[in-house]
TrEMBL record:
<keyword id="KW-0326">Glycosidase</keyword>
<dbReference type="InterPro" id="IPR003961">
    <property type="entry name" value="FN3_dom"/>
</dbReference>
<keyword id="KW-0378">Hydrolase</keyword>
<protein>
    <recommendedName>
        <fullName>Fibronectin type-III domain-containing protein</fullName>
    </recommendedName>
</protein>
<keyword id="KW-0732">Signal</keyword>
<dbReference type="InterPro" id="IPR036116">
    <property type="entry name" value="FN3_sf"/>
</dbReference>
<dbReference type="InterPro" id="IPR013783">
    <property type="entry name" value="Ig-like_fold"/>
</dbReference>
<feature type="signal peptide">
    <location>
        <begin position="1"/>
        <end position="19"/>
    </location>
</feature>
<feature type="domain" description="Fibronectin type-III">
    <location>
        <begin position="20"/>
        <end position="120"/>
    </location>
</feature>
Amino acid sequence: MTAALFASAGPLAATSLAAAPTATTGTTTSITDTRATLNATVNPGGEETSYSFQYGTTTDYGRQTRLTSAGNGTTDRPVNVDVDELTPGTEYHARIVASNGTDTRTGADVTFRTTGTPPAPAPKPIATTGSAVTSISGATVNGTVNPQGRATTYYFQFGETAAYGNQTAPQSAGAGTTPVSVSAALSGLRTDTTYHYRLVAIGPGDAIATGEDRTLATGGAGSTILSFFGQTAFTDQNGVGGVFLGCFGAVSCRGDMTLERSGKVVGERKGYTIRQNFGGIVHITLNDLGKRLLRQRGNMSVRTTVLNANGQRVTGVTKLIRYSTNGLKG
C-alpha cells in the first residue's frame, strides 16, 4: 500500500509544476545580406511547449518560422533558427513566441539590420482581413488581397491571443491589380474558445502587408443552443413570412432554413444570423409552389428545418396563415 501511494504522487507533483512558459528574445547573430540567426531562451514551465519566431520589417512582423517543440522541462533552454530570403540593407524586427496548454507568452521585440545595399522600394500588396464562419472545432476565415501587379502569396495567422502563434499554409494570390477573395480552413481548434486571426500578404522584395486583427469564437457541446418557436407564421401578399428562432450561448447562430410540404421545398432562407443570447423573427419568402399552395388553401402546415453552422439541426411544424390576399390572387 505504501508503494502504491508513493507511485501515485509522481503525476500529481508533475501536474502541480505545470505553468505558463517564459520566452526571452536574444540577440540576432550571423547576419548577412539575406540571412540571419534568431536566438532566444524558452522555459517550458513543466508542460509540453512549442515555440516559433516572428519577424518582419515592422512590429506587425508578418513572417513566422515553423512551430518547434521546446519539450516540457522546467529550466531555460536556448533555441535558435536561421531565416533567409531577407532584403539587403534593411532593418528587421523579431521576437520569440512560446505556447503551452496554460498560456502563450512573447519575448521582447529586438531589431537587426541586414548588410548590403537596400533595393528600391516596391509597391506593397494590400491585405484586408474578412469575416469567419465557425463550427465546433474549426473555422473558415476570409479576406481580400490586392497583389498590386506583383506575384503575391498570402496566409492567415491565428491563435488564442493577438500574438497568434499559428499560421495556415501559404497560397498564391496571383499578380493582378484588383482585390481577390481568399480564404483558409482552420481545424483542430479548441471548443468554446475565442481566437484571434489576421490575413498576411507577401509580395516580392519582402513587401509585407497585414490585415487588421479580428476574432472568432468556436462553439461546443452545450455552448450554443438553437431554439425553434415557429408554430405559427403569418404570410403577407408577397409570400413573405417569419419564423421565430432563439440562440442561447456563447456564439451566434448562423445557417439556413427550409420549408417543405409533402417532401417538396416551398421556401428557403440562406444565411440567417442571430446573435448570441438573442432571438427574433427570421424572414423567409415562399417560392412559386409555396405561393400557389397558400393561395389555394389560405393556410397550410409546413415542415421547417433549421440548420446551424455548428452542426445543430432543429425541425418542427409551422402553420402558415395568409393574412392578406393582395398579390396572391390569379
